[in-house]
Please model this.
Amino acid sequence: MLAAIEVSTRISSVALLDLVTGEELAEMALPGDWESSATLLPALETLLQQRDMTAQDLAAVAVSVGPGSFTGIRVGIATTEGLCMPSNLLAFGVSTLDGLAENLRAAEMMGEALCLVDAQRGECFVGHYRIEAEGFTELDPPQILGFERLALLLKEKAWIVGPGALKYEKELRESLGTQGMFAFNSLHQPKAMSIARIAYRRWRGGARPSLMELKPLYIRLPSVDEKANPQ
Model:
């Protein structure tokens, strides 16, 4: 059994996926005004209990590692550590931007795509992808860009998805014009089940990552670190 945790943006979620069959068993979104650190484990326990299971039935945990909320990323990784350490479970770290690309793939929205997470300061964490039926390909490394520079990345019309797309929708529509095709509203929020599906494909491909490999994907340093390490 694989448990998945998405906690890198305002709305957190947890999910369960059967590693033997690939069946997507359950997913739960947590209220945006709740503290993730206090609700992640109870939510996951609820999903397990609904299947007459406990944490002892888990073989792996997948967690979004950012970019996104520094606090959320740390909470997600700490929760994963707590679940994995006692039984040495597999620990899959999945980019939040990859998760958004998976949202599009699962919805059969193929082609070029920009996955955007708000980076504050009028900027977004940007993932640039080619979405295909069986997966997606990263066209550029994750980066931080102002919305006015996104059009320079595109070779053709592209899907626009993610919390950053919602925040800067007006500006993006003006900047991208007909090049930008906004995804359905239901796809803009990162989802734990998308993280689970990516981890499952990696598992089927032979990946067996340990907890030692689990690291956050920040792109930009947390503000406290930026102040301690001025450029």
Q: What stands out?
A: The beta strands are 2-6, 13-17, 24-29, 60-64, 90-94, 111-120, 123-132, 135-146, 158-161, 180-182. The radius of gyration is 17 Å.
